Amino acid sequence: MAIFHRFDGYEKKSDEFKVFSGETEIDVLSCTVSAHPLNQVWPGYQRPREQTEQSAYVSLESDGEVTLEITPARPFSDVTVRPLSKNVAPKSDGNKVTVTFTSVGQYSVEFDGKHNILTVFINPEKEFEIDKNSDNVIYFGAGVHKMTETIRPDNGQTVFIDRGAVVCGSIAAESKKNIRVLGYGILDNGYVERGGTGGPISLSHCENVRVEGITVVDSCVWSMHFAGCKNVTVDNIKLIGMWRYNADGCDFTNCENAVIRNSYLRNFDDCIVIKGIRQDTLLPVTNILAENCVIWCDWGRCLEIGAETSAPRMENIKFRNCDLIHGDTVMMDIQHGDRAEIENVSYEDIRVEYRNPHQQPVYQSEHDMKYENPDPGYMPPLFIVETHRTWYAVDDTIGDIRHIRFKDIQIFDSDGRIPYSKVHAEAEGTVIEDVSFENVTLNGKKLETLEEMNVHLGGDVRDIRVKK
Question: Distance (Å, rounded) from C-alpha 365 to C-alpha 277?
Answer without folding.
Answer: 27
